[in-house]
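does this look right to u?? nicotinamide-adenine-dinucleotide version
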Amino acid sequence: MKIAFIGLGNMGGGMAANLAKAGHEMRAFDLSEEALARAVEAGCRRAASAAEAVTGAEAVVTMLPAGKHVAGVYTGDVFPNAAPDTLLLDCSTIDVATARANIEAATARGLAAVDAPVSGGIAAANAGTLTFMVGGTGDAFVRAEPILAAMGKAVIHAGGAGAGQGAKICNNMLLGASMIATCETLALAQKLGLDPQTFFDIASVSSGQCWSLTSYAPLPGVGPVTPADNGYAGGFAAALMLKDLRLAMEAAASVGADVPMGSKARELYEAFVAADKDGRDFSAIIQTLQG
Ligand code: NAD
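got this back:
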């Protein structure tokens, strides 16, 4: 299939490479020459502009920083150049309102579109093991599924337009809050004189068990190997967690939902990101909570 891929950064670079590996005819574009060169090395054809990438493509994948970038590319490059019935797949994490508006605008122009944000970081993007949460009609999902499957281990239809973004920010609000709860709990256990590994062994098989503890333990030398064992480098940057928590608060306000834990997590990550100059993993917030 002829696929345009716009946004070849940390995530998009690996995703475009996996689509090329799956045999698709890729036309890639990024504002960064460096990102574009990497995609060409991985088997994609260089496009001189997003408009050129979209022209003649049967599907268009976007992996961009935020809603304004996706809306800008859709309005400026995709809508004027996409052939009727082209399938648009936006895998970026963006606000629910913009995702819905983009899909509505695409549908009004005779295009098919889904929001398909991902769970999983750069390593999963490179390995083709992302989880995709998809919003859109059943017909659009059926068309999107095989394309997404070439980049991931799970592709789930979350519901109508915007439901993928809704699922993504709800999941990450839960993750942000549970990471902070895990960090403050480990800090307290240490202050109470407990050996962290012993506490890990107990909580891992008790009712406090959660992913932030057992799969992503925020202390070095405790549990499986995680970014904590690597000086909190790599992994999922705290700034990206903050971005998702801000989106979650925006979505919560739009429907009048009460989210006290999510709101506190956003406040704590705001302070952490403002003070952290190294772009560390979101689990590094344990150092703030240890005092
Ligand atoms: P990134 O900044 O590394 O990549 C974004 C790319 O988009 C850059 O290469 C940039 O040059 C390009 N770009 C920006 N505007 C453009 C335009 N108008 N036309 C063409 N290219 C343009 O970001 P990333 O880490 O790859 O994240 C991409 C998306 O995935 C974000 O929405 C992010 O929230 C989401 N996400 C990231 C991670 C992660 O671990 N990095 C995990 C899950 C989801």
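The first strand starts at residue 2 and ends at 6. idk if thats expected tbh
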